[in-house]
Amino acid sequence: xxxxxxxxxxxxxxRSSLAGxxxxxxxxxxxxxxxxxxxxxxxxxxxxMHGEPxxxxxxxxxxxxxxxxxxxxxxxxxxxxxxxARIAFSALxxxxxxxxxxxxxxxxxxxxxxxxxxxLSRTPAPEQVVSTAVLALLELTTAERGLLMLADDVAWFDxxxxxxxxxxxxxIADAPIVFLAASRTGTEDLFRRxxxxxxxxxxxxxxxxxxxxxxxxxxxxxxxxxxLLAEADGNPLALQELPAAxxxxxxxxxxxxxxxxxxxxxxxxxxxxxxxxxxxxxRRLLLLAALDSGAGLSVLRTAAEGSxxxxxxxxxxxxxxVRAPAAGCGLTFCHPLIATAVVNLAPPCERRAxxxxxxxALGDDPERHAxxxxxxxxxxxxxxxxxxxxxxxxxxxxxxTPGDPSASVGALVSDRRRVAASAAxxxxxxxxxxSPHPVDRSRRLVEAAFLATMTGQLDQVNRLLANAxxxxxxxxxxxxxxxxxxxxxxxxxxxAAYRLLARALDDVxxxxxxxxxxxxxxxxxxxxxxxxxxxxxxxxLLETAMARFPPEAVSTFRLxxxxxxxxxxxxxxxxxxxxxxxxxxxxxxxxxxxxxxxxAAVALDALSDYxxxxxxxxxxxxxxxxxxxxxxxxxLLCQDSYVHGQWDEAERLAQEGLDLSVVYGYQFWEHQVRAxxxxxxxxxxxxxxxxxxxxxxxxxxxxxxxxxxxxxxxSARNLAALGQGDFEEALVQAxxxxxxxxxxxxxxxxxxxxxxxxxxxxxxxxxxxxAHVRAAQEAGIPRIGPRIELITAGAAAVAADDGDAAKxxxxxxxLPDAARWPWDYARIQFAYGQWLRRTHDMAGARxxxxxxxxxxxxxxxxxxxQRATAELRATGVSVARPDAVPEPLTAQERQIAELAATGLxxxxxxxxxxxxxRTVGSHLYRLYxxxxxxxxxxxxxxxxxxxxAxxxDRSP
Length: 956
Known about the structure:
With 956 residues, the chain is mainly α. It contains 47 helices and seven strands. A five-stranded parallel beta sheet has the order 2-3-4-1-5, sandwiched between helices. Strands 6-7 form a two-stranded antiparallel sheet. Helix 18 packs across helix 19, helix 23 packs antiparallel against helix 24 and helix 28 packs antiparallel against helix 29.
C-alpha cells in the first residue's frame, strides 16, 4: 500500500504552517529544502528524496508545503497509488486538478490536450503535446507567484505521467518552480533517470529516536522503551505507531511484551506492503526466516523442502525487504519490523506449516526444535509439551556455556539469552496447554508461576496457581515457594513467607537435588527471607535445608549463609570460596547462581573484583529477563559504589533499581533501595531528604519484621545526625540498631562501630565508647574484612585516652589498602585532625584536615566538607569555598545562637526554651559549621555578619 492510499489526495495548502518544525534529526534535509524554496528558478529547483518506508519522506514534503505557503508560493501535490499505476496520466491528473480552471486560458491546442487529460474531451492527444501543454499551464500558474510541486511515492506513478513530469522538470530551471519528489529506496522509477539531484533520508539517530518516542508515548517503562527503540530502529513511523498498538499495562511494564510486537495496519502495510505481490516460493522463504531469525541459509533451504531455493530471494531483495545474504550468514531483513509484518500477513495454516518445517530442519537444536513444534501444534501433545518444558527451563536452571546448543537460542523464540526467563514462563504456560494429563499440566503451570515471581509478572502468579489446580502429584512445595516469593516481593510479608517455606520443606520428599525445580525455588526464596530479618529461625531453616544436599551442590548458598551468620570465624575461607565460585561461573551464568554470591561479597566488602559479572547478568536480563534478580544486583553494585566513593554511579544504579521496582511492583525491593538511597542522601549531607526516606522505609519495614531493612534506614538517620553534629540523635539511632556494648556482626551493625563510638564520645559517654570498642574487638568483628578492620581501628582511636590516641589513629590510617574506602578513611583523618587541633598540634591538624577535606569534596560529602572547612579555619587556615552554599539556620537554631551570644550558659538557655542542656549543646555544635565558626566566642561576630548579609539581600 502506498502513502497515497492512506491519503488519497493531499489538500492544496498544508494543514499547518508549522509543519516540519518538530522534525527531529532532519536539520540537513530541511536546510536543503529551504535553500531550494528561497531561490526557485536559479538553475537548480528539483530534488528526489529516497529512503526506507516510514522514514519520514512524506513528513519532509509536508514541511516543504508548509514553508512554501509561508513564502506565498502555491502548492500542487500528487501521491502515487499502486491501483492507478496502469492508468495513463492518473498521477498528472491528481497533481494538476487544483488548477484545472486555468486550462481555458491556454492556446487552443494546449487547451484541447489538457481537456482530454481532465476528461472533458474524448479526443486523445499525443504525449508530446500533453507535455508542452503542462509546461504552458505551469508557466501560466506561476505568473503571479512561485510554485512548489510535490510528488510522493513516485514509484507508483503511471509511466505517461512520469514521462511528462520528467519533460517538465528538465525545463523549469529558470522558472519560479520547485519540484520535490519522494521514492522508496530500492524501487525502480522513471524519476531516477530524470537527472534530478538525489538525497537519501536516513533513519533517526539514537537521541532523536528517543525524543520522538517520548513525545508520542511519555512514561513508558524503561524496558518497554528500550524494546520499542530497538524494534523501530530509527524509523519515525514505527516510533509513533508501535506504542499505540500496545495496551496500557504493556506500556507500563505490568504485562510482558509479546515476542512479536503488534503492528497497526498502517505500519504493517508500510513494512511489507509488497509481500503479497511476491512469488509464492519467495514468500515461503521470507516466512521461514521471519519465524526463526537465527536460521542460516542451509536451514532455510532444508525447511523449504524443495519448494523454494535461495535464488527465490531475489524478488524480495529488489522489493527492498531483505539484503543479499553473505556466505555462511542468515537472511537479514532490511528492517526488524518487516519480519513481524511478514508473519502477521501469512495465514495461520501457512505459519503452522512453516513451524513444522523448521522443527524438522532443527532436529539437532533441542530448544528451537521444541518451540517450533509447540507453535505448530493444534491440540494436546505430551511429547511436544515435554520437549518444550525441558527446553524452557534448561537455560534458566543451569546457565549456558559457549558451544552449548542452548547458547544459540537461549529464549527459544529469540536467539538472545537475555529473555530466557520471561520466555520460559511463556513456554511453560504453552507446555501446560499442550499437556494431555492434569498432573503434568498442573506441574508446568506451578513452575511457570514460580518463575513469574522473578520475571516481573507478579500479577500473573495467583492466576497461574489457580489454573494449575490441585492433583495428588502437584508440586506443593513449589506452590508454597511461589506463594512465599510473591508474599515477600509484593507485600513484604516475610513472616508468612517463612511459615510457607517451612511447609514447603516438609512437603519435599526424597533426596534433594539442585536440578529439581522445587528444591531450587525453596532454597532461593528462603535465602531471600533470611537476608532481611535478624531473626535466627529463617537462617536455621536454611541450614537445615542445605544439609539435605551434597555440599558442592549448595556451595553458593553456603557462602552466603557463612558471610551473614558466621563472618567472624570463616572470613578468610569465605573470601577464598567467593573467588573460586565467581571464577567457576559459566560465561552465561543463570541469575540464581550469581545473585547469592553478590550478597555474600557485599557483606564482606569484597564485590569490587566481581562487579563485571553482575553487570553482565544485568545487561542480559534487564529486558524481559529475571527482573526480580536484576533489581537486587543493581542494589548490590550501588552499595559497593558507595563504599568506594563512586557516589554518582551509586545513585544512578539505585535509581534504575528503584524505577524497575516501581514499574514491576516489587515493593520489597523498592523499600530496600529507598533505604540505601536514604544513606546516600545522608552521606551527601542532605539531612532532610535522608530523614524523609528513612522514616518512609521504617514505617513500611517495622511492622513486617524486616529488621535489616529498618536497620539500614536507621543507619541513614544516624549518618545524617552525625553530619549535622547532632550526636544525641546519632546515638539514639545507632543504639536502635544494636545495644551499647554489644556490637553485632550482622548487617548493617558490622559497619556501625565507628558511628556509635563517635556519637558516644561527642556526648561525653567515653566509657561507653571504649566498652563498645573492646566488645567489637573481642567479638572478632575486625576479622570480617579490611574495611571493617579500618572502621573498628578508627573507632578505637576516637574512643582512646589522649595518651594513646595518636598512635591508634596512625595505626588505623596505616592499615593495608585503607585508602580503598575513601569515606571511612577521610572520616578517620577528620577525627584525627580534630584531636590534633584540640591538643594544639595545629600543623599536624592542618595536614589531616586538608586531606580529609579534599576527599570529602571529591566524593560529594557536602556536610562533612563544611565541618572540615570550619576545623581548618580554626587552625588558622583560610579556606575559600565560593561554590559552597551554607545551609540556613532553623528558627530554633537562630534563637539558641542569639541567646548564647549574649553569654548565657547551655543550662540557662535550656530553662528559657524548655530544652535539656544536652539538646542545646547539640544545636550549638550543629550550627557552628553553618556559620563557619568553631567556638562560642565567634558567635556574636558571625550573627552580625549574617544579619548584614540578610539586609543586603533585602535591599532593592
